[in-house]
Amino acid sequence: MNIKKVSLLLFIVSLSGVECVAQPGKESENSIFWQVSGKDLKEPSYLFGTFHLLGNVYVDSLPNVSSTFKKCKTVVGEMLMDSTLAMKILMASQLKGTSIDKLITPQQYKQTADWLKELSGHDLKMFNNLNPITIQVLLMTVMQQKYYPMNSANDMPMDLYFQKEARRTQRKVIGLEPLEVQLKALFGQFSYERQAEMLVEFVSEKEKAHREMVLMNKLYREGRLDQLQELMSKQTYTKEETMILLDNRNREWMNKLPQIMREQSAFIAVGALHLSGPNGLINLLKASGYTVKPMRVK
Q1: Whole-angstrom Cα distance, residue 252 to residue 178?
Q2: 284, 159, 186: which is closest to 242 by C-alpha?
Q3: For the chain, how far is it from start to end, CA to CA, in angstroms?
Q4: Helix axis angle, 192-204 relative to 132-147, nearest 10°?
């Protein structure tokens, strides 16, 4: 695997790891695309729930999303994406003072290595110094790409596409948080032992992981936030871990979004599971006095 491909996978790690959890609570309406209006907004803004492992070719198949995106003057993402991102993620994902083969048993290491080889043809040894969460998300990513490959060399993760296209058309691009916040939530809160525990559980149930990946793709394409939420709530994160991964970040974003939307119409693209649940953006926006209504994607 060349360094370009490793960098792409590590970039996706930064986006996809936090989407493996959900917030329990009341059901959300079934849509990944929402209009935000009312209160003090002169014109509506739009909230789109992304699936970080799908690309812009899929976005092109959603004409209402594409046309709305092109009209919005500001594009908002979880963080700003630039050429330094992959290296920062690579540095943050490095183990210090240990390695994967020391954190799990030889049998567990073999199971993980065999699955990675099956999915990608690559040896786990080349990733031996990356933390277990990174290994887990790499497995998820290569599994996704094996069964649901991006369609061409020009197909890129949709979050990256929105920002690159906005810059190409000279529109304003805003990140809701620095990369360091996301990396702290994804890596920093977990001990190496806790990360290893989650990796081992994931690998030991690889058939379940495959079934859930297929179902997750189906539910996302159908815009079923409530069932996505139910599926993801079965993961192994504790309530406290979920608060750091999702709830706290959503609340911080709500300190920035009102001003952004007041200034001009914004296209806000964040992971779909940041939208759902009592502490999700849909509910938080409604609680702040905005009118938030689902929109058709096609």
Answers
A1: 12
A2: 186
A3: 37
A4: 30
Contact 28, 225 (CB under 8 A): yes
Distances (CA, A) of 76 to 45, 284, 285, 286: 11, 17, 16, 19
| E-strand stretches of 102-221 | 172-175
The burial class, CB within 10 Å (0-12 / 13-18 / 19+), for 80 is: middle
The DSSP bridge partners found for residue 293 are: 35
The whole-model pTM stands at 0.90
CA atoms of 95 and 23, how far apart (whole Å): 29
DSSP per position, 235-290: SS--HHHHIIIIIHHHHHHHTTHHHHHHHS-EEEEEEGGGTSSTTSHHHHHHHTT-
Q: 71: buried, middle or exposed (CB in 10 Å: 19+, 13-18, 0-12)?
A: exposed
H/E stretch holding 47 reads strand 45-50
Contact 162, 69 (CB under 8 A): yes
pLDDT per residue as tens digits for the range 179-225: 888 888 888 889 999 999 999 999 999 999 999 999 999 999 999 88
